[in-house]
Amino acid sequence: MEHRRLGASGLRVSEIAYGNWLTHASQVEEDAATACVHAALDAGITTFDTADVYAQTGAESVLGRALAGQRREGLEIFTKVYWPTGPGQNDRGLSRKHIIESCHGSLKRLQTDHIDLYQAHRFDHHTPLEETMRAFDDLVRSGKVHYIGVSEWRAEEIRAALEIAEQMGLDRIVSNQPQYSMLWRVIESEVVPACEEAGIGQIVWSPMAQGVLTGKYLPGQPVPEGSRASDPMGSTFVSRWLRDDVLTAVQGLVPLAQEAGLTMAQMAVAWVLGNPNVSAAIVGASRPEQLVDSVQASGVVLDDDLRAAIDDVLGDVVVRDPARTESPAERP
Question: Model's pTM, two decimal places?
């Protein structure tokens, strides 16, 4: 497993990270989830990403139990705060109250005394950004959090946070966690340039476009049983790609992967890792063997000819326009 620096920080992360959205305490039983975590460790993954909202705090608890007994210094545990985790008016957002209380809850569920990277899961338009940044800074200074990041923030939001951190002498953002894949490239025009300038790295989610880039979904055919698209929650996110024009284009990638000696999953993960601003690609799994496949993308470099061929095959089905964003309810 190759490791990369997280942006311009000194923290090194496995370039393939394990994420437990839509799996732990949701799609699979705990024994299977634990087996997947142990498979990730066996494959050399040291970076684990979760969030308090995943399975309404259940995913953090499962991950904490699965990692119990591991050498803590050899792991990078990431989690997030923003989405509602309770019925109260302050059980959501990026207020000081919610950030501090959520951090304490995550620490207990993850069975650790610190979070390596604590991320603002979305931008909060209802809380002063100064309040949010001060709360994160206090957690860093207390030793409960080592680094701070954001998820799915726009370029102008990231710049505003950096300016406040500079003015107030606060700890600064080191990472952003956006959706990014061969099919969804909206970060390339604005977010990536802003982050490159500031030394912020991308930790990208859904590099396989919710499994569509594995090639298992076929045009004109029903979705496979047990796939993410067959799950009521997972289908919300994958449905945008289940169009015949997209699925037909993706099938055109199969001979390219075969010629390169890669599986479709490996080619998809290697493609996002080819962006120099990407520090890590998050992969998930409901079965250990899925990880055995995808982690072999670590260290794989796709040459320029192959990347150009991928662009030619996908053509107009690629989403590049930053205006094409999802509603908050559609984002993990």
Answer: 0.92
The strand pairing partners of 119, in sequence order, are 80, 149
**All structural domains of the chain:** 3-320 (3.20.20.100)
Q: Are 144 and 115 in contact (CB under 8 A)?
A: yes
For residue 330, give the DSSP letter: G
Position 243, amino acid:
R
Three-state DSSP class for residue 19: strand
CA distance 228 to 209: 11
Residue pLDDT tens, the chain, 332 long: 999 999 999 999 999 999 988 655 555 688 888 999 999 999 999 999 999 999 889 999 999 999 999 999 999 999 999 999 999 999 999 999 999 999 999 999 999 999 999 999 999 999 999 999 999 999 999 999 999 999 999 999 999 999 999 999 999 999 999 999 999 999 999 999 999 999 999 999 999 999 999 999 998 777 766 555 445 445 567 888 899 999 999 999 999 999 999 999 999 999 999 999 999 999 998 889 989 999 999 999 999 999 999 999 999 999 998 775 554 444 44
- Tell me the chain's radius of gyration from C-alpha atoms: 19
Which among 76, 57, 62, 51 is positioned nearest to 151, based on CA atoms?
Answer: 51
Round to whole Å and give the CA distance between 1 and 95. Answer: 38
User: Could you list the active site residues?
Assistant: 54
Residue 73 makes CB contacts below 8 A (sequence gap 6+) with none
User: How far is the C-alpha of 184 from the C-alpha of 319, rounded, in Å?
Assistant: 5
Q: Is 123 exposed, middle or buried (0-12, 13-18, 19+ CB in 10 A)?
A: buried
